[in-house]
Amino acid sequence: xxxxxxxQVRVLIVDDHPIWRNGVARDLTELGFSVVGTAxxxxxxxRIAKAVQPDVxxxxxxxxxxxxxxxxxxxxxxxxAARVLVLSASAERQDVLDAVxxxxxGYVLKSAELRELAEAVLATSAGRAVFTPGLAGLVLGEYRRxxxxxxxxxxxxxxxxxxRETEVLRLVAKGLTYPQIxxxxxxxxxxxxxxxxNTLTKLQLSNKAQLVRYAIEEGVx
Amino acid sequence: xxxxxxxxxxLTAMADQMWRALAAFRVVALGYAGVLIxxxxxxxxxxxxxxxxxxxxxxxxxxxxxAYARPAGRSRWLLGTDVAxxxxxxxxxxxxxxxARISAGSATLPAFWAAAPVLACAVAGGxxxxxxxxxxxxxxxxxxxxxxxxxxxxxxxVLLLVAGGLVGYVVRLGTRAEEAxxxxxxREAAAAERERLARSIHDSVLQVLALVTSxxxxxxxxxxxxxxxxxxxxxxxxxxxxxxxxEDGHDTGLLDVRAVTEPLADGRTTVSCPATAVLLPEPATRxxxxxxxxxxxxxxxxxxxxxxxxxxxxxxxxxxxxxxxxDGCGIAAGRLAEAAAAGRLGVAQAIVGRLENxxxxxxxxxxxxxxxxxxxxxxxG
Lengths: 221, 381
Fold this sequence. Notes:
heterodimer, A: alpha/beta, Rossmann fold, Arc Repressor Mutant, subunit A, 2 domains, 58% helix, disordered N terminus, B: alpha+beta, Heat Shock Protein 90, two-stranded antiparallel sheet, 7 strands, 10% strand
């Protein structure tokens, strides 16, 4: 499952701003990543991904043709082994949340330092979730919204956080690193990572189940 | 004036309704006049002329109903002719009917059919046009009945003037209201378009600022200072852009707490919020925002030059929770109590006081070297 140590991580960069696309490609190449392609639109990204089979797709959310969440969904349907890391300057929280529930493994702001970006790409390629404090705040809010919605309207069980998961997410949102959280809660860093990962997986599974339910209902009628 | 089909928008729905009602009124009034003339024409001085007038009224009714149905037909010329025709028919009564019946106060030949052109002028030209047409028809009435008889002619004149003025006034009022509503819709559409353009421009600017930030910091030295400046502007713009969408609660007296927390973000302060609005009554939101700003300000000043700060806004069924955490040098245990005892508790007291005013609580957790965490909690009523 994990690539061999000497195997380079294959990255596809999707961004409609050429300066960003080229700048990030150059930086990642210098750091030893293999940039296997760049794309300026969602459709182009889907076409190129088919040809180059990337490990990690670095995805900007403001694309001229498709919403970022849609690109994420289609990429992951066509290439289940690939991971999507959102790299965005977007100020639209809902866009970020949509992309993450559609299956993206994490979110990095474009103003992040190169070192942070490289770490995030590595973590993503290893299947780990990459959370900024901002994303943790969004995910906490989304779980609360889902549970409030279920309380109001009934309906199918909404995904819920365990109290430990909530605790971990809140600490991420308050800016603590995974090792700091591990120390504070008396857990191993690996366990902290798993908790964070679970919060995302549950949200994505619930989103997928909703889509399937929707498709069946539409199809039956 | 505009042609039909060219700018249908300028034709108000209300005026259109009035024209249709007016057509119906004219037909009903023609029926009433017809009944009177057919019943009484044998008593007239010139019975045949009476029936002729009825025929002319029928023709004129058909002409005007057809013409007024189209906006282009509602011309000054036709309206003027309409008034003249009605006045002529009122005056013809004097010659056609018998003198005895006239002095006994009988109705004029067209009866209240003569009010139709007055209402038409009022709908087309507003209150003053209505009153002017009313005066013209009233003048004809006077000629027909030289001595004012309070029980009918005088009452008729007053009613004509009132109807002309009032209908004109109401139509003008309605038209203006509709125009205002339409221009509001237009403004809203323009604002939405501006916002769409602004979003795309803001996105490009954010991209460039983010680039300068990350490149500048990587280069170090003076470039790093530029990077920090860019980071501040990026955070300010981000807060501004996301603030525009949070006006949800304006009419209800509620205000999105995100609108007051987002502006706290800068190069060293990260603000995390839910994707959906966090609504509290406006005074509570303002107090919470001021308390959070004081906490962030305190962190910037006392936590140390390299300290960073995180603001987390959470919303659950029971309460709104706002946490301000910094990774600075912290406050030694007992120092807060010491300060309180010495009567200098500026910041903490301001924060606690603000929260108490709105029924909330504030707590501070801090240890030397482990930063400070201020938790502000406002229960949901």
